[in-house]
Amino acid sequence: MRGGCRLLPLLLLVVLWGLCRGREPAPGAVTCGSVLKLLNTRHNVRLHSHEVKYGSGSGQQSVTGVEASDDANSYWRIRGKSDSSCQRGTPVKCGQAIRLTHVNTGKNLHTHHFPSPLSNNQEVSAFGDDGEGDDLDIWIVQCGGTYWEREDAVRFKHVGTEVFLSITGEQYGHPIRGQREVHGMPTANHHNYWKAMEGVFIKPSVDPAKHDEL
Q1: Helix (H), strand (E) at residue 126
Q2: Taking burial as the number of CB atoms within 10 A of a residue's CB, which of 73, 92, 120, 160 is the most buried?
Q3: Which of 99, 104, 67 is nearest to 85 (CA)?
Q4: Domain boundaries, the chain
Q5: 131: alpha, beta or left, given left = phi > 0 and alpha = psi -120 to 50?
Q6: The pTM is what?
């Protein structure tokens, strides 16, 4: 009986350790501050922007989808609704509000009530200066678990207009021939799934001050 009593503290420690481990983010979680490319899983193109403005609609910097995996204009930085809400190295939770900042131009992924040029859905643009834009730069990460995992196909729902970041396959001509139109759609469907691909990922940590680049 005494031997069984001695085992109780040990068993308790094992159970508590298991519970604590269950709350830790998985090693593959996407984290704040990471720089990555996003692949539309239906159309196999990466979210892209460049210093080419729309010739209609808002006239803001255009956002497209490209097939090339090595294009440097397809990198986006993961940021929070505010910088304090998404400290570097913190895992992004499903349902969290984020901003996606285009690395090469410093503009944020943005949408608003303008028609997209090809499909007449809702225009998606890149907006702002040096990562600062407005409230129409905010998107909610929709995924099935606790955290946004790199292997997950996720959706991005726009907070201000409730559309989903989507591609349906329409292609541009000159000067961005072959690139796909990116737009907002009001319904969740197979055109608005995205997956994290190439990039520099900050190692997940429950302590945002402790992180390493992978």
Answers
A1: strand 122-127
A2: 92
A3: 99
A4: 31-200
A5: left
A6: 0.84
Helix (H, G, I), strand (E, B) or coil at 78: strand
Tokens of 45: 């193109």
φ, ψ dihedrals at 186, nearest 5° = -75, -15
Burial of 1 (0-12, 13-18, 19+ CB in 10 A): exposed
Q: Convert the pLDDT of each residue in 153-199 to its tens digit.
A: 999 999 999 999 999 999 999 889 999 999 999 999 999 999 999 99
User: Is the sign of the CA dihedral 102, 176, 189, 197 positive or negative?
Assistant: negative
Per the structure block, which two tokens stand in for 168?
Answer: 């349906």
CATH tag for 31-200 (out of 3.40.50.150, 2.60.40.2550, 2.80.10.50, 2.130.10.10): 2.80.10.50
* CA-based max dimension of the chain: 83
Distance CA 105, CA 73 (A): 9
